[in-house]
Write a structure and sequence with these properties.
single chain; mainly beta; Beta-galactosidase, Chain A, domain 5; nine-stranded antiparallel beta sheet; six-stranded antiparallel beta sheet; 4 helices; about 10% helix
């Protein structure tokens, strides 16, 4: 499994705008790594001066992400959301071909509190860029998501994932706070995390989780809801 991490940091107003105008250039470097390979610390510096520190730890069947985003400058930052890109070609058993949709039947999110396989119905097809699919939670402005087709469906929670080729395992991911769920064009899935901008001197914390479990959906959901109680509270 590979993750393009972090793929991009984005400004608001992104839904119908050229992608080059949305992305904030950034550089990420490794700060520290444990000898057993189970922990890594990264530091990302954005062009506008924002610094994001990442503490990433691998467990038995999960990877935990703890982020601190800080704006040490005297100017407000428009860093609004960011993209960890989880590549799932190997997991789903398909070829890593750009714009491929052959992996969609293995992928899922939750709509009306039920697991919904992709392609969900209805399936949006019109946007500035195609193909792909974006699901926007209620707390996020429609103008501030990926410029790919935006579904009319509202996800019940922030969990998105896929079944393995043999159906025996699940790979899933979630973040808090989260900006969107996204099925991408390089055989990938996203739960993209939200920053919401940073005032001068402001610091925010973000956390994420990657699950690699058996194909027990009920157990996965219980675990996810325990890890992210804010998502359950927001839905209620």
């Amino acid at each position: 499994m590979r993750i393009w991490y972090p793929e991009a940091f984005c400004r608001p107003g992104s839904t119908d705008r050229d992608w080059k105008e949305t992305v904030i250039p950034h550089e990420t470097r490794q700060v520290e790594a444990s000898s057993d390979g189970r922990r890594i610390r990264l530091r990302t510096t954005l062009e506008d001066g924002v610094v994001v520190d990442h503490d990433i730890r691998a467990g038995r069947d999960e990877v935990d992400f703890r982020l601190t985003s800080a704006n040490p400058t005297a100017q407000a930052s428009r860093a609004h959301w960011a993209q960890p890109c989880v590549r799932v070609a190997a997991s789903t058993g398909v070829k890593p071909e750009r714009d491929s949709e052959t992996y969609l039947p293995k992928c899922f999110l939750f709509v009306e509190d039920r697991l919904s396989r992709m392609p969900t119905r209805p399936w949006a097809t019109k946007a500035r860029y195609t193909p792909g699919q974006v699901w926007r939670p209620e707390h996020v402005d429609r103008a501030d998501v990926n410029p790919r087709p935006l579904s009319s469906l509202v996800p019940s929670n922030g969990l998105i994932g896929c079944f393995s080729a043999d159906g025996k395992q699940i790979l899933a991911t979630a973040w808090e706070p989260y900006q969107e769920l996204f099925q991408g064009v390089i055989v990938c899935l996203h739960s993209d995390f939200r920053i919401g901008g940073l005032k001068p001197g402001e610091t925010k914390t973000i956390r994420g989780r990657l699950y690699l479990t058996g194909a027990d959906v009920e157990s996965l959901v219980k675990r996810y809801e325990s890890d992210f109680p804010e998502h359950r509270a927001r839905r209620n």
